[in-house]
Amino acid sequence: MTVESGGSSAPGAAPASDTLSARWPELLMAGFLFAVAVLVIVDSQRVGSGWGDDGPKSGYFPFYIGLMLAGASGWIILSQLRRWSHDTAVFAEHEQLRLVMAVLVPMVVYVALIFGIGIYIASALLIGYFMFRYGRYRWAVTLPVAIGVPLFFFVVFERWFLVMLPKGPIERMLGL
């Protein structure tokens, strides 16, 4: 992804220097969807995408959905490459990307922590972080909520519904 430089926001002008062009995000997303489509098509062929004596085989509908997805994403790729030098669409400004990253990075850390310390402790840390950092709540409010919400979900899932969620070493040590 490249940052476009200079120019004004007038039609036909290059995006301002504090913006990210829509070229690369569109191209990368369409490429990713095309790869997913190829995966769906190949796997549908593996399980059978034809018509059997008793109706469609299990890969019949996914095969055609994969074809449609490949066609749509291929069209986007070709369109983007064809208008590459003329495209002035803006994907996002740097401030917008910074705000997205302020949420995305803690969420990625949260998902990584689930595997190491379990979903309940990781959830308490995430809730506490967002309440304190962005909600600007004091610790007297943050701690009860950050502990209470995962505790509530523990009771609901583990005790009432009997659905086991990923546990970490602390839950195992406590015998939960």
Please, could you describe this protein's structure?
Among the domains are: 64 residues; 56 residues, no CATH class. The protein is 65% helix and 6% strand. It is flat, with a radius of gyration of 24 Å. It is built from six helices and four strands, in the order βαββαβαααα. With 176 residues, the chain is mainly alpha-helical. The strands form two sheets. A two-stranded antiparallel ribbon has the order 1-4. The protein has a two-stranded antiparallel ribbon with strand order 2-3.
Low-pLDDT residue spans: 1-14
Main sheet strand line-up: 1-4
Helix content: 55-70%
Q: Please report the number of helical segments.
A: 6
Query: Would you tell me the structural class of the helices and strands?
Result: mainly alpha
Order of helices and strands: EHEEHEHHHH
Task: Give the overall silhouette.
Answer: flat
Mean pLDDT value? 88
Largest sheet: 2 strands, antiparallel
Total number of beta strands: 4
Separation of the first and last Cα atoms: 46 Å
Q: Kindly provide the radius of gyration, computed on alpha-carbon positions and rounded to a whole number of angstroms.
A: 24 Å
Strand residue percentage? 5-15%
Q: Assembly type of the shown chains?
A: single chain
